[in-house]
Amino acid sequence: MLIRHTLAYLPAQFLGPMAQLGAVLLLTHALGAADYGLVMLIFAAQEVVFLSCLSWWTSYYLRYGGQLAAAQAASTGGAGAGLASTEAAVLLVSALAQLLVTMGIILATDPSLSAAFLASACAYTLTRSLLNFLSERARREAAIGAYTAVQVLGPLGGLALVGGLMWLDATTPTSVLLAFAVVQAVVGLAVAARFGLLVRPGKLDREVLRSARRFGAPVVLAHSLSWLGGNAIRFVVHHGAGAAALGLLSVGWGLATRLSGVAAMVVTAAAYPLAIRAMDAGDADGARRQLADNSVLLLALLAPAGFGFWALSPGFVPWLVASEYQALTVQILPWALLGACVRNLRMHGWDQMYLLFEAPRDMVMLDVIEAVTMTVAAMVGLWWGGVAGAVAVTGAATVALAVLDAWHLRRRFGLVLPLAAYVRVLVAATAMAALLQAASAWGWQAEPRAAPLLLAAAVGATVYLLALTVLFPQQRRVVCSRAWDWWQARREAQS
After folding, report:
1. Which of 38, 373, 383, 448 has the greatest number of CB atoms lying within 10 Å of its CB?
2. Greater model confidence, 34 or 140
3. For the segment 175-223, what is each residue's pLDDT rounded down to a tens digit?
């Protein structure tokens, strides 16, 4: 079931983030380091604006939305009009709060920025948050078509408009943010209409709001602190080394976080709702087993993504990134990939237990520790070795924090850690990386050209999959058996 749901979400989880990554890489060829760093800071700031203003509702709805809709339908005989009007009011108030928070972040960063930039940043933030909300709503209702539209059309449209701006030689931070905002608004309003969310706020369900506030308030605090932990290095580098250094950092750091994020969300979009279903059915042990399975599949995607891109980075970086950013990007990628992959394994793997077992205090405490640790690590690293030192020290700190987190969850909530499966996945990924490193030494993919790089990536992926089939014999037999049954059933249907 996990693999089937994961495959259904795969187009959205791959095409959308890859389009975002394409836009981020394309902008390195159009913006200087200072302007690039500013745009990336707004992209990152949007995440904390959403987390602080709207994630309390989306987290609550994702966890309890099915129960709410069923309860209201049973009590009213309808589909829950009170829930719809309450949600509309939440979205309206949230939009006003997002405007205030966004303006506060921008003015605190640089009060001299123009009013046009401020307006475009607010428009980008509001429309991107709407898409984030709609994607969570689609996950809750298993509306894969709507989820795919939200995840894919916004980034692809933004990428196309950025390309048009570059062709017109009109690429500025303001125009880039406005281009994304226009596309996101069109997609967001269309999908919101599909869900029947374009309604006037009416009578509020105060009990639902109270429950959402109780559940969501610690989630907001935890997610905001988690965002700070994940982005502390940006602010430390910006204030300690300047806007140009932030721009140089943002390319390698952004590549690592986005690449690992793509791999993580391929699993998470389908996996977490399955664990929720087990909890709703009263099967806590089943939910634990589901999270364990999720984490293995998650690592099976993160490990080859991280190892593979690291091994191929000497060829890929000159091919994809403008020359101004290349040297530092190659230097910081190994530590950036390590930190990003381990953090995503922790957050999208076993940290889901905090929400499933309703443990907000533990979650907040973890995120406080992470925020403080990452800030101190970035400061120490920047003092010790500049931007590259900041990335290295924060990467090492991320690994230590993940080990501490897993130990706590195992002791407190009975987390299942399938260590033997983790080791086998890492062995397969290491074999793939060793082959790619050997290919680099032989000069097979040393030149930054598409054909040899993509061929090397395809060969590496094949070696990884073959290693997995050897190291996971039981799963191989199950997959082969089901594939054979499907083939037989198809032949019988045709005959």
Report:
1. 38
2. 34
3. 999 999 999 999 999 988 887 777 666 667 777 788 787 877 787 888 7
Give the pLDDT of residue 78.
46
Per-range mean pLDDT, top range of 70-84, 152-166, 435-449: 152-166
Per DSSP, helices labelled H in 242-283 are 243-280
Q: Report how far Cα 83 is from the mean position of its chain's Cα atoms.
A: 28
Listed in sequence order, the residues at least 6 apart from 64 whose beta carbon sits closer than 8 Å to its beta carbon are: 211, 215
Question: Would you say the C-alpha torsion 437, 443, 448, 453 has a positive or negative sign?
Answer: negative
Q: Kindly list the distances between the CA atom of residue 355 and the CA atoms of 288, 359, 382, in Å, as whole numbers in the listed order.
A: 12, 6, 34
Q: What is the DSSP string of 300-369?
A: HHHHHHHHHHHHHHHHHHHHHS-HHHHHHHHHHHHHHHHHHHHHHHIIIIITHHHHHTT-HHHHHHHHHH
Rounded to whole angstroms, the Cα distance separating 445 from 400 reads: 34
DSSP assignment letter at 80: -
Q: Using an 8 Å Cβ cutoff, are 52 and 125 in contact?
A: no
Rounded Cα–Cα distance for residues 246 and 260 (Å): 20
- Compute the distance between CA of residue 17 and CA of residue 152 in angstroms, rounded to an integer: 8
3-state DSSP assignment of residue 449: coil
